[in-house]
Amino acid sequence: MSKDKKQEPTQGKELSEWQKRNQEYLQKKAEEEAKRAEEEVREKEEQVSESSESDQELSEWQKQNHEYLSKRTEENSTSSEKVDEESDETEEKDSISSDETPNQEEDVEETKTPQEDLENPEQVEDEKVDTEPKKEKKVKAKNKAPKPPIPSIHIWRAVTILVPSFIIFFLSIYLLSPLATMKHIEVTGTVQTSADKVKEASGIRDSDYTISLFLNKDKYADKVKSNHWIESAKITYQFPVHFTIEVKEFEIVAYSVSGDSHYPILSSGSVESTAVNADNLPEKYISVLFNDEEQIKSLISQLNDVSPEIKQEIEKIELAPSKVTSDLLKITMYDTDEILVPLSELGKKLPYYSKIKPQLTVPSGIDMEVGIYSYSLVDKALDDERIKAKEEEKKKQEEEKKKQTEQQGSQGQTTQTTQTTQSH
Fold first, then answer.
1. What domains can be seen in the chain, in order of their start residue?
2. pLDDT tens, position by position, 376-396
3. Cα dist. 235→200, 208, 228, 396 in Å?
4. Tens digits of per-residue pLDDT, 356-370?
5. Do 76 and 28 form a contact (C-beta atoms < 8 A)?
6. Is the pTM value of this prediction over 0.70?
7. Is residue 70 within 8 Å of 37, Cβ to Cβ?
8. Residue from 269, 280, 218, 274 nearest 243 by CA
9. Could you check whether the bond before residue 240 is cis, i.e. omega within 30 degrees of 0?
10. Distance in angstroms between the alpha carbons of the first and the last residue of the chain
11. Is 336 left (phi over 0), alpha (psi -120 to 50) or beta?
């Protein structure tokens, strides 16, 4: 009813061009705002459907949006009514005579200012936005679309470029610094040789890079074997610059005896060139009484097949070639037993000594040249003495026969000379 009363004075009057434009503008503005509100509602509903919020929160948010849209439509309708009332008032003021005072004209201009403000939609819209409730602003801020994440392919591309470049950068700095050649080398397992000789054999220098030594550990370990005492070598690394050379030396199997000098014979078959002091000799050791290098290597290789128990009982080994076997060895044990065995069959036949030994009650000899049989050394010594006595008797008889033949020859010559003299 109030609206009809306000519009009564304007009935029967035609609207001015400005009022028509204003009404068209307000209608378009209301339609645009309604469309924008619908689009915002759709966008917010899509965002909320994609998000992981619960259904209860979505429903509350939709209710708030519907309330907000209804308020906006009511405000637009009331603003259009106010604009109509103001347009009616301006028409009444225009009908006033032109003989009014300048003060009245100023009042008319002041009444026009709100209408002019309506012509600036941006200002009206800003004022409405500022009057929105704080709850609606919070809902908008909460439902803002999150920033799109960076695709993983770009991340991986950056990683593949940055990581190698950083590695190369730090590696180049490290190689140029003194830390690149810093290393501590320790040698373990040496008994007969020294740690300095092992390092010298390895070929490791102070100027070598630590990374190079780490990457070529096996090559340097093989070089250590050039020392004739070293059987095997292994290089281990411990962070940051600690290296350990673990070596295993060849065992001393026997000693080559030359006069009063004893030279170690290693398990590799090589003979140490430096003689050992007599005070440093062990209580029991094998004395080898021949110096041929090939025969010594063959002997050591054959002894490697013999048990340590038998080797501990060997006192000396010497050559005793016979008419049948040129490489026959005579092995004398610490319990005075004697073994005759060919060098080429030592590793095969000598182990039988451990089975024959329990059956022997007296110092015996074991002949392994052709078969295997044992005999008493006492009996053999007696036999040898008998054989020697017989040989000596034979020699004496032969010498006597020679003397008799010589005497008979000299007598024959004297008789012949006497006969010749008598004939003359």
1. 16-93+106-142 (no CATH), 182-249 (3.10.20.310), 252-380 (3.40.50.10960)
2. 877 777 766 777 777 787 888
3. 14, 15, 18, 74
4. 888 888 888 899 988
5. no
6. no
7. no
8. 218
9. yes
10. 213
11. left
